[in-house]
Amino acid sequence: MSFLSSLSGNQKLLLGATLASAAGLFLYKKHSCCSSSSTKSIATSGPKVDYSKKSKQQIETEFKQVFQELKKFILDDIKNNYEVPKENIEYVERILDYNVPHGKLNRGLAVVDTLLILNSYQVSEKQFHSACVLGWCIEFLQAFFLVADDIMDASITRRGQDCWYRLEDVKMTACNDYLIVESHIYKILKHYFNEPSLYVPLVDLFHEVTYMTELGQLHDLRSLPPNVDKNESSTIPFHTFNIQTYSLIVKYKTAFYSFYLPLYCGLILSNKLDENIRKQTLDISIAMGEYFQIQDDYLDCYGDPSHIGKVGRDIEDCKCSWLVVKALELANEEQVQVLKANYGKEAPEKVKLVKDLYKQLNLEELYKSYEQTAIQAMNQMIDRVPDFINKDIYRTLLNKIANRTK
Fold first, then answer.
1. For 169-205, what is the HEC assignment?
2. Which keywords describe this protein according to UniProt (predicted)?
């Protein structure tokens, strides 16, 4: 019997329900929702292991080992089922090794953390392995987003190394490479979660989250249409650089795949598909996503490239970032004119003028004040989660990003 094969009829109905499109908020149809008390526990094979006896480092090491397993599965699948020359199989391996496993792995590990916390760290090895596999699917998703994003933003470095597309023997081949990485997600899901009651909703979930993230990227990119000449300040649509536009961008671009998806995957594996919990998880995820993106915008300007692993370009790229939104809110007319004359320009002296203006407006101090207020607000949201769900699934994720410096 494969993992999660013994499900009640209600569970199969719930897991197989179509994701509603209204507002893109993953709302299940009313008739498909059922409380956890009305469903049976998910059946697992093998004895339970006490993972509380393992250190975080041991758990992370075991998680990383699963990547090697998944890579072998992918390469064997290509070798055995497709007419691909050896050198191209080796190139696919290089794509994966270069782009997938080098981040902080917070998204993938959040699936594992959620499973362990919700089950008091008592799970079978098969449950743990399934959480690792789903976690790596999210890391593959992250990798393909980043390769594409780096091309669109003309980024220089990522995770402390040259962006993939900048390598001499890669260049624009990277456009096809990130599509290959995305396809691997669905190869993995089909192989490891091949029961229809699991495979269909998981594929729907990953497709929906991918689509919503792509819409977020669209909001981001179209905040400065490509036909705008950044050297002509009068053509830059600064009137759209407001908190409403910014909130829409970060909600779709960051919150769903970085926070909601890993938490939701952990809830699925733990059989905690309660509609109230799902809604509160969504609300908390959106709040975390906004905070996380504002952190990114701050670090893009003020972070040390050698520490954060990339060179910030939000000013040069004329991004609708939190810093420029706040600057436009706080600046007087003279300062607004300085900002408009220099924002989005490549010249280092113009970038410096923008940063000098940020300093005049005390944006560093404003960010630090915002950060503490945001953390407090998210903790209050977590406090309101019903007691039958261990709130540590949210606090663990929040603690990983709170006051981060990279």
1. CCHHHHHHHHHHHHHHHHHHHHHHCCCHHHHHHHHHH
2. Magnesium, Metal-binding, Transferase
What are the backbone angles phi and psi of residue 2, rounded to the nearest 5°? -80, 170
Q: How far apart are CA 383 and CA 391, in angstroms?
A: 7
Query: What angle is formed at CA 164 by the lines to CA 161 and CA 165, rounded to 5 degrees?
Result: 130
Sequence-ordered list of residues with C-beta below 8 angstroms from that of 86, at least 6 positions apart, any chain: none
**Parallel, antiparallel or unpaired: strands 157-158 and 122-124:** unpaired
The whole-model pTM stands at: 0.86
- Mean of all residue pLDDT scores within the chain: 88
CA distances from 321 to 20, 52, 255 (A): 30, 41, 16
pLDDT by residue (tens digit) across 309-356? 778 899 999 999 999 999 999 999 999 999 999 999 999 999 999 999
β-bridge partners, 50? 122
Q: Which residues pair with 162 in a beta bridge?
A: 157
Chain centroid to Cα 222, Å, comes to: 21
Backbone angles phi and psi of 157, in degrees to 5: -130, 160
Closest CA to 398 of 135, 136, 113: 113
Q: Which residues are catalytic?
A: 104, 144, 149, 153, 158, 220, 253, 292, 296-297
Degrees, nearest 5: CA angle 385-388-393: 60
Alpha-carbon span 196 to 12, nearest angstrom: 9
Where does 47-173 have alpha helices with state H?
A: 56-81, 86-99, 106-118, 125-153
> What's the Cα-to-Cα distance from 335 to each of 127, 175, 342, 357, rounded to whole Å?
57, 40, 11, 7
**∠ CA 245-107-5 to the nearest 5 degrees?**
120
Q: Could you read off the pLDDT of 242-301 as tens digits, one per residue?
A: 999 999 999 999 999 999 999 999 999 998 878 888 999 999 999 999 999 999 999 999
DSSP string, 295-351: HHHHHHHHS-HHHHSS---TTTTT---HHHHHHHHH--HHHHHHHHHHTT---HHHH
Phi, psi of 381, deg, nearest 5: -60, -40
Q: 3-class SS at 85?
A: coil
